[in-house]
Fold this sequence. Notes:
The structure holds 2 protein chains of 2 kinds.
Chain A: H1 2-12, H2 21-43, H3 52-56, H4 62-89, H5 97-143
Chain B: H1 2-23, E1 37-42, H2 44-50, H3 64-67, E2 70-78, H4 83-96, E3 100-107, E4 110-117, E5 123-131, E6 135-142, H5 146-155
Antiparallel strand pairs in B: 1-2, 2-6, 3-4, 4-5, 5-6
Amino acid sequence: MEELKYLNLKRTGEAEVPEGLEERLSMKIDLWAEEEKRAKSALGANTTVLSVSFLARFRPYRNIAVAACISLIIGIGSVIGLLGKGNNAHKDTFDNPELARIEAEKALYLLAYNMEKGTKHLKQAKDIAAHTETSINNNLKQLK
Amino acid sequence: MKRYIRQIIAILVLTMASLNAMAQANPFDKFADSNDITYVYISEAMLKLIGTEAIPSINGVDIDEISGKLKSIQIITSEKTTKESLKSEAMSIIKKEAYEKLLQISEPDNKVDIYFKDGKKNSIIVMVNGEKNQTVLIVFSGTFTTSSIAKIFQETK
């Protein structure tokens, strides 16, 4: 019995389109268009009537919508990524303020020490330049 | 059609700008999760608690201009094996973010470079200390400006 049913189904082939469906559909579309026209004339030319053609007006904005969605996804992803990274990066290493103070002082001391070291050489160079200048000036005076 | 293209470009530019702004937060944060690197972070709250303004002047250099305006200190120390990689990564950040070199000290077993970046909300001083066996990066973030740095150098006796 089941075999017979299967055979029958196979024999039917493609589903038949009901007669007159195409005409009925195009009539319906014409009717919607006419209804839209009537509604527009009744409410005024500037009034927006929600219809198939109304939705079609937004088609040019599809690209903008897609770009905005991509931007939003990238933005949210980056924020989540940054927050995840920031959790460890901005977490105080020391719970004990005394240990934090020692480390902070050490770091600042090292900065000051190196700044002093760097500027000391500059100062020495300036002193040498000044000394040379005075020596030259003195010699020039003697020559005069 | 041109109008739509313009709008798409505007949206993309805005997105890129916002992403760029987020990325500029602090590029040295990435070392927090690195292996074989010791990362120490001292927050603004902790710095307020310990009061870094009380740090005395060292060898005639008064760094009150910096210590009083600090928002955070990051101390990043490499192991012997990660010495070179930490240094090269730090240098690539410094180059990419267009840091200005304040000074450089080159000694036989020690090389120190100090860089500065003046930001609108947050400025950064980076000290790269290349020792024999390790590299130490110290990152000072705060509201100090170029004039704060200039004052330190002027006050140096």
